[in-house]
Amino acid sequence: MSLSGKKIILGITGGIAAYKAVLLLRLLKKNDCDVTVVMTGEAEKFITPLTLQALSGKPVLRDIFSDAEHNGIIHISTASEADLVVIAPATANTIAKIRAGIADNLLTSIVLATRAKIMLAPAMNRVMWENSATQENIEVLRNRGFIISGPVSGFQACGDNGTGRMKEPQEIFNDIMAVLQGPSVPPEHERLLAGKKIVITAGPTVEPLDPIRFISNRSSGKMGYAIAEAAVAMGAETILVSGPVQISPPAGVKFISVNTAQEMHDAVMNGISDADVFIGTAAVADFRAASVSPVKIKKSAQNEELDIRLIQNPDILSRVGHSEQRPSVVAGFAAETDKLETYAIKKLKDKNADIIFGNDVSDKTIGFNSDQNEITVFSKDGRIIPLPKSSKKELGFSVLRLIAEALK
Ligand code: PMT
User: Fold this and answer.
1) Can you give the CATH number for the domain in which 40 is found?
2) 200 Cα–ligand 1 center, Å
3) pLDDT digits 0-9 by tens, 85-112
């Protein structure tokens, strides 16, 4: 399927990343999209409407009251015809307005008036991005079904280094392709999980020691996010509970962002009450600090050694496996560096799981942070099935085919 003829509204708000919107527009036009550019007044301080008009081949829409042809209802007509609204860059200010339902310019009015999917590509200073107001706004919008593309980390125009940079135009374009085309679902998997609810954990957990230090691990979230993407494609209502990672949640999931194992545990326990499936892909820290120092732990001549007492975190997979609200299928991953079969079978029993997906994380080409994995499936009925090395995205479908079989 191509993007030819897809009607896209490209909203541009006032940030330095606005110049990158020009490149995104070019990519969309090269792929024969029908693009209508809508700019805010602030965006015009960074790039000119003339450039965008020349590239889109259409007048740039800027003023809610200026278009007599549409009898003053331009935002309704433009909004209702779109397949997708993409706002790139989306400033903290516009994100906050959208969250609050404010419609004080043509772009925010279109956002309120459209039934199309809306993608936001945030771009702002890293402190503005980290601000709890912005984080809360993003969380709310994600839960309303907005697709959040980025931001990524790197050097910023203001001289800072951190998360807040807008994704590169090609990456945003790839996200647009995924949303408009849907992830490619192998025909044999199509709608196999329609009507089912799946809760998936992914990524690492982060256990604080003091306000700036923590215990964590190298999980990138790629395996769990791939399973979540496949679950959506196969028709499941999908809740993704994730520790902090650098990748964006797949479109269509209900996303719950957590930091600690305890937070992940609480979110999972809330989510499983009417779920059919739980899959624990997260690398959950087994231990946390018995007490978190409220101030930075300092070194001194008196403490050449430092003892930190650790206590066990709840075992989420085991709690789900033994819960009264136990979903029909409970599955977990086992990351092992040796004796994969012995440890995986022990986890299957100890955690009362139906399936354990074992991966050998001593092999650097698979497991943590790689794009590929190789899995051995240990099933409660004694079957051991190898899933050969392939991309995590492909394995996401293989994993869920086995889950769908177990649900029968
Ligand atoms: O995120 P990626 O970079 O793509 O890497 C993927 C992965 C290697 C992290 C993933 O494939 C994987 O193996 N995840 C499980 C890692 C792990 O911590 O395994 P474990 O053997 O410690 O735990 C076994 C199972 O119990 C897991 O399902 C884990 O989520 C769960 N668990 C563990 C501890 C705990 N306190 N609570 C849990 O629920």
Assistant:
1) 3.40.50.1950
2) 11
3) 999 999 999 999 999 999 999 999 999 9
